[in-house]
Amino acid sequence: MTRIFLVITALSASALCVAQVPDNSGEGALARLRTLAGEWEGTFTWTGARKDTGAMNATYYLTGNNSAVVENLTMAGVPTMTSVYHLNGAELRMTHYCGAGNQPRLKAERIDPAQGMVDFSFVDATNLSSPGAPHVHGLELRFLDADHITLTFLFQSGSNESRERIALARVKTPQAMQRPSVTSSPLQH
User: Fold this and answer.
1) For residue 50, what pLDDT band results from cuts at 50, 70 and 90?
2) What digits encode the pLDDT tens for the residues 75-104?
3) In terms of CB atoms within 10 Å, which of 21, 56, 159, 169 comes out highest?
4) What is the helix (H) or strand (E) element at residue 165, kind and residue range?
């Protein structure tokens, strides 16, 4: 009886230790991205060859039985860019439907939940006329808190690189304040 008690105590203690380790997996990062569902507003700042600032809105929603998060970015009500975050096996991936008319595919290279960081790097692109054609080459996503995020797109054109920073805050609406929590899909194992 004492032996059983010790085994149960040891297993419980190890489970608590595991539960306290931040989840730096692709699935953990995608779960955090799912919490963005809703309306967001903020500002953008382009630096480098293209310089501009202004207002930016975003809508996040889930699709594919919660297997993907869609991010629609708009300026003055006009859709400018869409990104879709999803898993490829255990890896978090993102396909960016760029205003430049190409579709870069990125992979999360660094996931640090304690710092709220997910950094993506370029894998390849469709509809890219040449390797030097203008395209998104990376993304730095920062979760500042539950209602504030920043996106910094690394835009490359030939040997020139610019940073396109977007700071967003969740729009507080009565509907958003009562949004249901996202639960895991019955298809997940």
Assistant:
1) confident
2) 998 999 999 999 999 999 999 999 889 999
3) 56
4) strand 160-170
Say whether 30 sits in a helix, a strand or coil: helix
Residue partners of 11: CB distance under 8 A and separation at least 6? none
pTM above 0.85, yes or no: no
Task: Give the chain's domains with CATH numbers.
Answer: 23-177 (2.40.128.20)
In contact, 91 and 107? CB cutoff 8 Å: yes
Place of tokens 């105590």: 9
Amino acid at 75: M
Torsion of CA 111, 154, 158, 51, to 10 degrees: -170
Q: Which of 60, 62, 79, 80 is nearest to 71 (CA)?
A: 60
Q: Which residues contact 179 (CB under 8 A, 6 or more apart)?
A: 37, 38
> What DSSP letter does each residue of 43-94 carry, written as one string?
EEEE-SSS-EEEEEEEEEEEETTTTEEEEEEEETTEEEEEEEEEEETTEEEE
